[in-house]
Specification:
Elements (H helix, E strand, L loop, with lengths): L10 H5 L3 H23 L4 H12 L1 H11 L5 H12 L11 H19 L3 H25 L3
Helix pairs in contact: 2-3, 2-6, 3-4, 4-6, 4-7, 5-6, 6-7
Length: 147
């Protein structure tokens, strides 16, 4: 992925970045991944693509994704995610529970950490799992809705 920095930080340096700063980066990274994947796999209007993207990048979608892939994370990744989950956020969740908001922040923090430390293949792997988990959950919800 060409968006990754040419000079990544050492993992120890990236771990010293405040959790919410890592989440700030991770949010943008995941949003770009989701939108790029949607554009490459769905021929649709930008309005419909945006509505699809929201399901993935919303706090509820990100929280659900992190919970689905938690067992695939190594101990270091779990610790980074927990830092994000436990961070004191200056804003409140608007369309999600506070728990979902904190879990979404955890996923974003992890992605930001992986980005800064140059672990691009692992970041992509986790984003792929998160996307697939969200897509699978949306499929189940669609199947349960009356037609």
């Amino acid at each position: 992925m060409p968006i990754f920095p040419e000079e990544p930080l050492l993992p120890q340096q990236a771990a010293q970045v405040p959790a919410l700063t890592l989440a700030y980066l991770g949010d943008t990274l995941y949003d770009l991944y989701v939108r790029s994947r949607l554009v490459s796999t769905h021929e649709d209007t930008t309005g419909r693509l945006n509505r699809r993207a929201i399901a993935f990048v919303s706090a509820v979608g990100q929280s659900r994704a992190l919970k689905a892939l938690w067992d695939r994370l190594n101990e270091e990744e779990r610790q980074i995610a927990q830092r994000g989950r436990n961070a004191k956020t200056p804003t409140a969740a608007k369309n999600a529970s506070i728990q979902d908001y904190h879990f979404a922040t955890a996923l974003e923090t992890l992605l930001g950490y992986l980005y800064l430390s140059g672990q691009d293949s692992r970041a992509k792997e986790i984003m792929t799992w998160a996307y697939d988990a969200t897509e699978a959950a949306a499929g189940k919800e669609d199947a349960n809705c009356p037609k």
